[in-house]
Amino acid sequence: MFSFNKEDVWIGYSLKDLSKVIRVLLDNNIEYTNNKVITLTNYEKINLRRYGETQYTITVSKRNAKEAKYLINNVLSKDV
After folding, report:
1. Nearest Cα to 54, choosing from 12, 23, 22, 26?
2. Which residues pair with 56 in a beta bridge?
3. 37-80 residue pLDDT tens
4. For residue 80, is it within any domain?
5. Could you tell me the pTM of the whole model?
6. Which of 36, 57, 59, 65 could form a disulfide with 7 if both were Cys (CB 3.0 to 4.6 A apart)?
């Protein structure tokens, strides 16, 4: 991210994990922005769809970054 007052707190490819991250941030009243980057591969030229083509990024303000990282770690580590 090119903003000086924001920090990326989660980057991933799983839509399931993205949903969990957004839910925990909403539950704790932490404002966030998300970005979706679609990576093009040679497989798309022959119409083969693959999982993991879309990268998701969650960004929060720097003052909330430490708390957001802690909450995200907790919610995602429960699945392991």
Report:
1. 12
2. 12, 36
3. 877 665 555 555 555 478 999 999 999 999 999 999 999 998 66
4. no
5. 0.79
6. 65
Distances (CA, A) of 40 to 6, 10, 13, 44, 57: 27, 21, 14, 7, 17
C-alpha pair distances (Å), 7 with each of 42, 43, 45, 63, 77? 32, 33, 35, 9, 21
Most confident of 1-15, 20-34, 46-60: 20-34
Query: What is the residue range of 42's domain?
Result: 4-75
Place of tokens 């802690």: 70
What's the token pair of residue 51? 């999982």
CB 60 within 8 A of CB 31: yes
Q: Give the CA distances from residue 46 to residues 41, 76, 79, in Å, rounded to whole numbers and listed in that order.
A: 10, 35, 35
